[in-house]
Amino acid sequence: MRRFRVAVAQIAPTLGDLVKNLALHEKTTREAIAQSANLLIFPELSLTGYFLKDQVPSVALHPDAPAPQKIRDIHALICEAKERFGTLAALPFSTIMQQVAAYQGRTRLRRR
């Protein structure tokens, strides 16, 4: 049986600081790759932080705009890891839970 390693990113993003948070994501992704992780789970909204309120326009990326270089760098790291280890996905926890709920046949995610 093939082993499947899951890494959970326990990080503290800085509210509204996309550049700093991207650097933190890159560092965490590199650490997960070094530990041969197959799946890396980030906290929800870990690129922007919670409670942005009036900061939303300053961190928003237009869908047609090219991704910032740091996002492309992180994507390249993940692609490299996929080649080396077979799989590596970096996802927010809420996405994982939504997929689990869908897999179990539930129509919506229930939170307690």
Write the CATH architecture name: 4-Layer Sandwich
* Distance linking N and C termini: 34 Å
Number of domains: 1
Question: What is the N-to-C order of secondary-structure elements (H for helix, E for strand)?
Answer: EHEHHEH
Strand residues, percent: 5-15%
Q: How do the strands line up in the largest sheet?
A: 1-2-3
Return the average pLDDT rounded to an integer: 76
Shape: globular
How much is the radius of gyration in Å? 15 Å
Contiguous low-pLDDT stretches (5 residues minimum) are: 106-112
Tally of alpha and pi helices:
4
Quickly name the level 1 CATH class. Answer: Alpha Beta
The largest sheet is:
3 strands, parallel
* CATH fold category name: Nitrilase/N-carbamoyl-D-aminoacid amidohydrolase
- Give the tally of β-strands: 3
Helical residue percent band: 40-55%
Given the helix and strand composition, which structural class is it?
mainly alpha
> For the record, what is the CATH homologous superfamily label?
Carbon-nitrogen hydrolase
